[in-house]
Amino acid sequence: MLMHGLVSGTGIRPELIPLINASRSAGKSIHDDSFVDEWIRINCHNAGLNTMLVPLEDLAGWRREPQNGNLCHSTGRFFSVIGIRCRHRVEASELEWDQPIIEQPETGILGILVKSIGGVMHFCLQAKEEPGNIGGVQLSPTVQATYSNYSGVHGGAPPLFLEYFLSPKPERIIFARMQTEDGGRFLYKSNRNMIIDTDSDFPLELPERFIWLTLRQIAGLLRKDSLVNACVRSILSSLLFESSGAGQDEEADGSANPAEICPSGIWDTLQWLDDRRAANHMLARRIGLNDLQEWGVDGKGFFSHNEKRFFRIVGMQIKTTSREVAAWCQPIIENPAPGIIGLLVRNSPQGVEILMQAKAEVGNKSAVQLGPTAQFTQGNYADSKKLKKPFLYDEFLAPKMSKSIHESCQAEEGARFYRECNIHRILLLKDGTQLPLPEDYRWLPLPHLQFLIHLGEQVNSCSRSILTCLL
Amino acid sequence: MLMHGLVSGTGIRPELIPLINASRSAGKSIHDDSFVDEWIRINCHNAGLNTMLVPLEDLAGWRREPQNGNLCHSTGRFFSVIGIRCRHRVEASELEWDQPIIEQPETGILGILVKSIGGVMHFCLQAKEEPGNIGGVQLSPTVQATYSNYSGVHGGAPPLFLEYFLSPKPERIIFARMQTEDGGRFLYKSNRNMIIDTDSDFPLELPERFIWLTLRQIAGLLRKDSLVNACVRSILSSLLFESSGAGQDEEADGSANPAEICPSGIWDTLQWLDDRRAANHMLARRIGLNDLQEWGVDGKGFFSHNEKRFFRIVGMQIKTTSREVAAWCQPIIENPAPGIIGLLVRNSPQGVEILMQAKAEVGNKSAVQLGPTAQFTQGNYADSKKLKKPFLYDEFLAPKMSKSIHESCQAEEGARFYRECNIHRILLLKDGTQLPLPEDYRWLPLPHLQFLIHLGEQVNSCSRSILTCLL
User: Fold this and answer.
1) Which of A107, A156, A419, B317 is the most exposed place for a label (fewest CB within 10 A)?
2) Mean pLDDT confidence for B381-395
3) In terms of DSSP bridges, do strands A421-429 and A339-348 run parallel, antiparallel, or are they unpaired?
4) Does B28 touch chain A (CB under 8 A)?
5) Predicted-complex ipTM score
């Protein structure tokens, strides 16, 4: 959808830009598209995990902590589901609520290896199954590793290719930034999104279930539902360049290194974001699942909201022949109805602009990050006495002043979320439409978003997911 | 110490630069220096607060919460002293400890009004007393306001001039960014540092105890001990420009707006900072003062470490005739020995460079921020089995390869810290000295520090405090 050109203010080394451009626009690729379709047919539809939902109290290896009811693994490893009490103040208004949330206070690595093949950058993706995946197998990054994986503290074989991501030489780093996970359901969790270049002697031949794809091919696969996994979408949002010659890039013809020009007007955007951060006061206290108001164990043995809103924590038993461990149990989050993640975009004389919101989420360390235009689950607002419908709620359900230019269903990460997908809907505002904005919303040119993604921990996970659909 | 010139990558509007430059370098000022000295003699030495240390259990209005022992005001207002359990993992090493920490989950405003007088920018400071202040009265920002002050939720008269900081017009904002407080003793606390311009019809005449000062005059006062308060030092670190013509600024002669050029090499610095963030895994859990290991109420009724290290929480009774409230009690933090905050600087062909560290602090939301070269309290390391002395510990106690170019004793904020000051020591590395650096340390040119200060929440409070001594 967007053409790649010179990139200002992203930190990507100029000599890499032609390779990335070619990956997006050129037809050339090591595998032709029909081969890729066939490869996906073979590798992404042979699910080997056998999953069954069970009451939380039947999860072998997991227990509710006696003093607070939090759900933890008996070894203290993996992750916990804990309770938090939240208070969000914005100017004169105040909202208080309780909720369960995932605590996993370690930084994981989400990494993609790349290789220049014939002047075109190729990305190494993996057909990988997670217990919560819709359809079983999805296209995942080369490596998804937790701290336990890569620190080796718990023994066990490290994931294939992990070594490329542990201490990469600076010249191999194309992108490496901490980025936050879903701030509504992870407490203060960031993973490191990485794109790492390989040496010329890195083999073209990949192990089974790994494949080299170009950005053009990945962009095509993003048109299909629930195929490109959430981690890949998060990582690749860093390569969403503005088209060549637009905006600031013209000045890159001069003597300055284009990487050292900030996008025009970026300080105004940073000021607006800081204004909104100052206006939002968010407090989260860990209080234990036992003490959550409006939440409890339901008739099925799941932990759920007493009006069945938001999400619930369910238990899952997994059996497999394809992993080191033949069977395991874990809690997983289920969100019964798909949410909507939406972008409103418009054409302006300066290029494409995207309507973003300064979105406060309790699990984000800085509370306010850049969210997409729309990020909601319809059922949470229907008939709710407590929650006000967000801006453009109706427009994203039934567009009137805009038309849809992208629509897909994209899956959440399947190790923590059970068959969850969110409708990704991109709407183009009709020319000449006047749209008064609340203070939390602002039209941003794409270079501003790129700059903020490259700063790290400024653009939330829903935004990164849907921005990648613009690839 | 530094000359002001064109500023790249800070977001400060170009038309303001000459006024700020003149404030730093010109002799012109509305008050001559001898008047200022006399004004300070009169206004900063008439302490009106009568303070007395008392056991915590004697603090009227405060109580230990029955379930966890946390120290809170009976109304739930103001702040709390809570307990946290911390775990810090860096690569293979792991450190665990418990500590008390201040929780005050709201954003305050620390603001300075400025006015151009005869082409020279003047800063409105206030002679203000806090119960923990050394010497009683210090030069404070125009406004220091908590959320309770400015939201008006608790009634009471708002501070003078507060209205200028609540919703300033964009063109009045010279600087406004969230910045973190001391991450060792505040949990996830940021205040908004603001410099706000006034209209030409703003009166020259100020109320009693307020005064217009130039940056040159403030820089002079920073040579005196414990006179310019911690909030002023934090705010003014945003105006620490590189000298004109050095480094990136040369390119500002071209067509690009200088504000839109990032400092040369900034993406390498951001990459290094993200590398260190990825390597540090910090977890803080709120557990209650009652459950802290190695901490408890001592013989004097204060809450202290059982080896008398780190700091202690003491009780204070305050009586006054100068505030709305005639008497109050509060807990306050006492750090028996002064700490050392140090910068090592060197001259390089590109200009001054400053040795900064990627410093993890448990109370910083992103854990790792830029810290000064040295930030330690000597007594915490002497004979400690648990803690390793930090890099350049000995050099900052007895310089061998460097010479001191600044030495002062600067006070911590007197509403939360009891008569605490830290030695601010700036050392200049001797030319030609080779100094191998640990991974957490990096020489940074001043424009990189300015850029990061202007991003917000990247440069820690100790750094901002001592950087301002370079004014």
Assistant:
1) A156
2) 88
3) parallel
4) no
5) 0.91
